Amino acid sequence: MTARNMITATQWWQTALVRIQPGEIALRGYPIEQLIGEISFPQAIWLLLRGELPTPAQAKLLEAALVAAVDHGPQAPSIAAARMAATCGVGLNNAVATGVNLLGDVHGGAGQQAMSMLRDLRDSDLPLPKAIEEYRRWHRFLPGFGHRFHPRDPRRDPLLRLVAEAVEEGVVSGEYLVIALEVEHAIAPVPMNIDGATAVIYAELGFPPELARGLFVLSRSVGILAHAWEEQQSGARIKGPIPRPLLADYTGPALRDLHDGRKPQP
Amino acid sequence: MTARNMITATQWWQTALVRIQPGEIALRGYPIEQLIGEISFPQAIWLLLRGELPTPAQAKLLEAALVAAVDHGPQAPSIAAARMAATCGVGLNNAVATGVNLLGDVHGGAGQQAMSMLRDLRDSDLPLPKAIEEYRRWHRFLPGFGHRFHPRDPRRDPLLRLVAEAVEEGVVSGEYLVIALEVEHAIAPVPMNIDGATAVIYAELGFPPELARGLFVLSRSVGILAHAWEEQQSGARIKGPIPRPLLADYTGPALRDLHDGRKPQP
Amino acid sequence: MTARNMITATQWWQTALVRIQPGEIALRGYPIEQLIGEISFPQAIWLLLRGELPTPAQAKLLEAALVAAVDHGPQAPSIAAARMAATCGVGLNNAVATGVNLLGDVHGGAGQQAMSMLRDLRDSDLPLPKAIEEYRRWHRFLPGFGHRFHPRDPRRDPLLRLVAEAVEEGVVSGEYLVIALEVEHAIAPVPMNIDGATAVIYAELGFPPELARGLFVLSRSVGILAHAWEEQQSGARIKGPIPRPLLADYTGPALRDLHDGRKPQP
Amino acid sequence: MTARNMITATQWWQTALVRIQPGEIALRGYPIEQLIGEISFPQAIWLLLRGELPTPAQAKLLEAALVAAVDHGPQAPSIAAARMAATCGVGLNNAVATGVNLLGDVHGGAGQQAMSMLRDLRDSDLPLPKAIEEYRRWHRFLPGFGHRFHPRDPRRDPLLRLVAEAVEEGVVSGEYLVIALEVEHAIAPVPMNIDGATAVIYAELGFPPELARGLFVLSRSVGILAHAWEEQQSGARIKGPIPRPLLADYTGPALRDLHDGRKPQP
C-alpha cells in the first residue's frame, strides 16, 4: 500500500460523549481517571446516555432493572442463537453480536412499547380508566403485561417494590407506577411482566422509550455472553437448534423431475 | 456433558423450501443433482424464493438487476463497515455479515420503497399523472429517483433498455415501466436511479416489495465480500474509518471536575 | 448539527475494485453499463474477486458450485438462526446477517480447510499415497469428506462429473481432482461431501482457500434469505429454536438462598 | 401453519446458568427476586460467568475495569461502525450488534492476549526478567503496552492503583501486577495501556483469558450504545464514514472496454 499524505483534517462525526486528546479521555467532560473506581457501572451507563451523573438513589433503581433482565435461558431466541453461534467457531464477540442482533421490535421491543403506552396514557385528556379502555380498543396486546411462560413474572414484585420505596423517598414521582398499576387492575388477572416493570422504572427515571431497548440490550448482553461462553466451553460443534433428524416438517411439493418441463411463473 | 436421551421428535420449523433425507436434498421438490450444472445461480435464487423455476428470459432480467447493484465503493456504509471489520481480525463471513447488517430501511430500503410506490400508483383510482401529483403531496422524497452522487445513474439506461426489450418480447407487461417513466417525466430533470430501475424489474417480474430488499442484499453481498477480502489482503490493522487525530468534532461540555459536586438530573 | 467545512480530501481506503465518479461506475475498469445484461452473476462475482473476467467455461463451473450449496435446511445453524431472527421483528437484511455471522470456522470453514489440505498434499515432497498417510497421522478429521447426515452427499457426483468434463475440455488441469479422489480412495468408504467437491472446483479454478469461505457465504446467503423470508411470511412471533417447556436440561446448583451467606470465590 | 403435536420433550441445551420454571427464575441457583435490588450489576455479571457471587471488594475491582473501557470515541472501528449503522435505518440493537461484531482478535483481543502473556510469564521456568526477554524474542508486539494514540494511557494509573490497594487489603495476590510491572520496566519507556491494566485485574480476579474479551464486550457495549443513540438522535441519514467525494484512492486498472476481448485468467 502506498504512503498517504494527510493534508488536513475532516471532521465528520460530531459527538458530545467523549473528548479524546493524546493522554486524555473525558466522558461528558469528566476526565476518565476521576471516574475509575469512583462511579459504578450503572452510573457510567447513565452518564454516557444522559449527559450527567445520576444520584446514588437513581443509579440503584437503574441497577435493579439491569440486574433483573440479564437472562431468561435458552428459550429466548437471543440466547439460543448465541449458543448456536458459539458452536460454529466464531469469536465470543461474534456470538454475543449474533444474540444482540435478535433483540428486535418483537423480542426486545416490549419495554419500549410499554413505555410508549405509559406515556400515551399519561398524556391522554381522558381520565385514566377511560384512557385505558380507549387504548385497549385500539391495541390487541398491552405491552408489558402477561407472559408466555410465567403465570406471574417473579421479577415484577421486587422491581415494583423498589419503585414504591423510591416514591416514598422522593426519588421519583410515581406517576408512571400509578398508571401501570391501574392498567394491571383493569386487565386483571394478567400481571405486569419484566418489560412492564422495567418500563415503569425507566419512565420514572426519565429515559425516552427508545432507550428502554438499549438498556435491555446492555442487560441481556450479560446472559448472552454467559450462555455463549458456557456453550463454547462444552466443546460442542455445529449445534443446530435441535437434533437433525427431528427438525423440520416438510410442507413443500412432492419430488418432481426437472426435465418433465419447467413450469413458468403463474 | 451428560448423554442425551431423545425420545421423540418435535417438529418446530415448517418449510416448503427444501426436503432433506439421508442421501437426498430437494429444493422445492427438485432433487439437487438435477439442478447442479443445469440451472443458473439466478434461477436457483428465483426457485427458492418463488417456488418454481423462471423462464430463461425472466432469469436474465433478474440476473441483470443482480449484476447492476453488486458494488458502489467504500462511500456506501455497508462497504465501509465491512472493510473496517476486515481490519479487526474477524472472519470473512463476519465482515460480510457486518456490511449486510447495515442494509436497513435507509441504506437498503429504497428499492422496496420504490416498489411500494409503483404499486400504490398502479392501484390508485386516479389517472396516473394525478396519482403522481397526489403522491408527491404526501411524500417528501420519491424513492428510486435522483442520487446523492450521480447526476445521472449510469445503471439506469442499460436496465430500462432490458425491460423495454422484455416488454417487446412479451416477457413482462411493462405496466410498472410505464408508471416509473411517467414519474420520471413528472419530476424531470431528476432521473431514475439504481433502486428505481431494479424496482421496475422486480415489480415486472412479480416479486413482492419486501423481497426487493432481500435481492439487493444478495447482490450487494458480492461487493461487500470483495471489499472485505481486498482490505484483509492489504494487511491493515484496526482501521477506523478515518485517521485518528482527524475524527470527531467535540461538541460536549468543557472539562469539569467530578468532585466539584455532582449535579443531579434536572 | 453545525455546518462542516471540508478543506481537503483525505484518502483512507485504497481500492482496485471499483472506480466511481459522478455519472460513472466501473468495476475493475469495466464501465458498469457494459456489464449489465452482458455478463452473468457468477462472472460478476469472479470479476470483482479476481480482477479479470472468467471464460464462459470457468464461469459455468463456478456457477455449479454456487448453486450446489445454496441450502441445507433448518438443521444448519445459519438457517435456523436466520429463521429465529425473522420472528423477532428485525429487518430481512438483519436476519440474513444473523445467519451469515454463523458461517464461521466450524460451520462454514470446511471448504477452506479442504482446499488447504489439497494444497498441502499437492505441495508435499512425498508421493501422494504417502502424503495422505502422513496427513492422516497429524489430523483427526479430513475436511471435505463424510457428512453428519448423508451417507453419500447427493451433491458430490454431479459436481465431480462437471470437473471431469472440464478437465477433458482443457478448462482446468485436474490436479486437485486427482488428489481428492486419491484421498477418497484412501479413506473409503467415506465419500467426498459438498465442501470437498466445491473445494476441488475452487482450487482447480485458482481461488485461494480463504475465498472458499467467501464463496460459500454468497451461496448459502440465498438459502438463508429464502428461509428468513418464509418464516417472516408465516407470521410467527418470537420463536425460539424449540417450544419453551422443552428446552434446557438444567445442570446447575440446587435452589439456594442469598442470605445463607455468600461464599467467596474459591 | 398447522397445529403442532408435542409428544415429549427433547433436551438439547444443557445449562447450569439459569433454571426457569413457570413463575420461577433462578440464576446459578439464586431466585431472581433475591437478587434484584440486592446485588450490583457487576456482581450479577460475575455470578453468571463464574457461578458464585464475588466479595464486595472483588466486585469493586471488576467494576472499575468495566467502567474504564466503556468508550474511546469514533476513532475506534466498533464505535464508528455502530454510528454508521444508526444512520442506516436499523434498530438500536442492530447498531450495537454491528459494533460488537467488530471487537475481534485485533480490535478487542488485546486484553485476552495480554492475559495469556501474563500467564505464560507466570508459568515459565525462567526467572522473570529472562522469561520476558525470551518472550520478546518470539513476539513482535507485547499486548497490553503502548498505544496508537496516547503516549500514556490515562486509564493505567487509576486502575493499577486500585490493584495495589487490593493487594494491600489481601483481596488479590498481586502476582500478575508484579509481572506486568516488570514487563513495563523491561520495555520502558512504553507504558501499560487499558488492555494491559484490565488484563492484570481480570487475571488477579481469576478470570480465564478468553473472558477478558467477553468482559471488554460488555464494557464497550455501553459506549457503542451511547454513540449509536447520539447519531440516531442527530437525524443523519446514510452516513458513510467520510464524505463521498473524498473517500477512496483508486488503484485499479484504467478504463477498459468489455468488447476489446475478454482476457482469460492468467
Notes on the structure:
Four copies of one chain form a homotetramer. With 266 residues, chain A is mostly helical. Helix content of chain A is 50%, strand content 6%. Chain A has a three-stranded antiparallel sheet. In chain A, helix 3 (56-68) packs antiparallel against helix 10 (194-204), helix 3 (56-68) crosses helix 11 and helix 6 crosses helix 9 (175-186). The longest helix of chain A is centred in the last third of the chain and has 25 residues, at 209-233. Chain A is globular. The interface between A and B is large, with 65 and 63 residues. Strand 5 of chain C pairs parallel with strand 1 of chain D, so a sheet runs across the interface.
Summarize the structure.
The structure is a homotetramer of 266-residue chains. The first copy, chain A, has 266 residues and is mainly α.
